[in-house]
């Protein structure tokens, strides 16, 4: 890993807005896999295809803000 290299990494700020009660178990597991522990919690992840796929699965339960941040 090159410690001298600096580049911009796209980041996603994801907020869990709606309860998972009454939704499928795989959607609950997706929220846990994203790192959520409680409702209205906000987390940040790198913008990767796998994270985007998880967000698409629970898009009705979360809100997403896009931004760019230096690593």
Can you describe what's shown?
- With 71 residues, this protein is α+β, with helices and mostly antiparallel strands.
- The chain has one domain: Ribosomal Protein L30, Chain: A (2-Layer Sandwich), CATH 3.30.1390.20.
- It is 27% helix and 32% strand.
- It is built from 2 helices and 3 strands; from the N terminus they run E-H-E-H-E.
- Strands 2-1-3 form a 3-stranded antiparallel beta sheet, with no helix packed on it.
- Helix 1 crosses helix 2.
- The radius of gyration is 14 Å and the shape is elongated.
CATH architectural label: 2-Layer Sandwich
Order of helices and strands: EHEHE
Structural class assignment:
alpha+beta
- Main pleated-sheet profile: 3 strands, antiparallel
Helix-residue proportion: 25-40%
Find the count of extended strands (DSSP E, 2+ residues): 3
**Domain count:** 1
Features:
71 residues, alpha+beta, Ribosomal Protein L30, Chain: A, 3-stranded antiparallel sheet, elongated
Write the layout of secondary structure elements.
Elements: E1 8-16, H1 25-34, E2 42-46, H2 49-57, E3 62-70
Antiparallel strand pairs: 1-2, 1-3
